[in-house]
Design brief:
178 residues, alpha/beta, Rossmann fold, 6-stranded mixed beta sheet, 6 helices
Amino acid sequence: MTATSTISKKICLVGDFGVGKTSLIRRFLDRQFSDEYLSTVGVKISRKLVELSFSNQQQAQEVQLIIWDIEGSHKFKTVAPSYLQGAKGAVIVGDVTRKETLDHLAEHIQNFLAINPQSYIIIALNKSDLIEAEYLDKFRQSYFSNEKNSVLATYLTSAKTGNNVDEIFQILAQSLIE
């Protein structure tokens, strides 16, 4: 399969500080993980080319994801809307080991959709490798949201193990061009 054209789409990673947004991006882009915490200041923009193939098409479609890693601190919330502008999708990230970050998911979804009402969202419940397996499905069901059909899915992710990291970006990329 050869790609016919490349489409660029802006997506944002949104969530409280320390939930693993930067680690998810690093795992997706570089296949790496570090336990070292590096706080994002403002926004960090990365790019990755994703190739998607559809059963009804002869050729693959390339999507250039322009990934905006947005700082998660409370003082940054007043500036964040300008960074969210023009995004076609978002990964809203919570940390399964910190309930308060999960309680803020709905607020992050509403804030994102207020600026980008026609966008798609994936919820990533990150750091799932730190929770007992029998509790994981309960977490996923508890925090599944269906905000006007904008939320495509909720995934248990781990930037450390790579669990579901590629999937969240692939599903989001695919929905952006369908």
